[in-house]
Amino acid sequence: MIVLQTIAVAFAMFSAIPVPQFEWNEKNMRYAMCAFPLIGVVIGAAWCVCGALPLPGFAKAAGFALIPVWITGGIHLDGYADTCDALSSYGDREKKLEILKDPHCGAFAVIRLCSYFLAYFALCTCVSFTPRVGVLWVLALVLERALSGLAVASFPMAKNTGLAHTFATAADKTVVRRVLAVLAAVLYVGMAALGGWALVLAALAVLWRYHAVSRKQFGGITGDLAGWFLQKAELWMLAALCACQWGGLL
């Protein structure tokens, strides 16, 4: 029962998929970050269904771009937009953290979101779906969430409130780090075996950037920064996927 509650907590927080509602407590939140990658499996499965359907090229690309938004409810995009606003302010650390808490969407967030979707959709039009590509992308979506959970359990927090702090405080960090590190290593090997080593490098590069920016600009990570990381990782891995196909590696 605790396992099912743990999965339900992860899906209730990080997806728009209807799940049974449980009161969050110490037991069902302890390993919730370990269940977070399962959302990547669901998104990847829907992505593969879209890829297998006999749809026109642009319609299929639109499906590829919108499926993650529909399934997550846009929670990570919200963090991406807030972080873009904060980084574009060029204010001090306190100013940036204040912007993250502001519920309003600034001009820079709108500009970055429009640019993001334009780039994402353009890359999706370049994807030639095959079963191999589908499996590789499922692994990529799981990997980015494993790395995000690993960061929450490992990186310093920017503040003592917020979503990331709540999950980090409730987590058994030692177990979460070990489970997600092993999962990430297995995914690295699987993706490289499928010819997706470029996607692995892209994910690691964005993770390094996430760590550097969060510490220098904010003094640690927040839930918004975690969303920023996920969206950046997804975009760059998608670019790497297209590059692998163009280069004849897939």
Automatic annotation (TrEMBL):
Pathway: Cofactor biosynthesis; adenosylcobalamin biosynthesis; adenosylcobalamin from cob(II)yrinate a,c-diamide: step 7/7. GO terms for biological process: cobalamin biosynthetic process. Belongs to the CobS family. It is a multi-pass membrane protein. GO terms for molecular function: adenosylcobinamide-GDP ribazoletransferase activity; cobalamin 5'-phosphate synthase activity. The keyword Transmembrane helix applies. Joins adenosylcobinamide-GDP and alpha-ribazole to generate adenosylcobalamin (Ado-cobalamin). Also synthesizes adenosylcobalamin 5'-phosphate from adenosylcobinamide-GDP and alpha-ribazole 5'-phosphate. The chain crosses the membrane at residues 28-50, 105-130, 136-158, 179-208. Its cofactor is Mg(2+). Pfam families: CobS. It is found in: Cell membrane. InterPro entries: CobS. Keywords: Cell membrane, Cobalamin biosynthesis, Magnesium, Membrane, Transferase, Transmembrane, Transmembrane helix. GO terms for cellular component: plasma membrane. This is Adenosylcobinamide-GDP ribazoletransferase. The keyword Transmembrane helix applies. Its EC number is 2.7.8.26. It is an enzyme of class 2 (transferase).
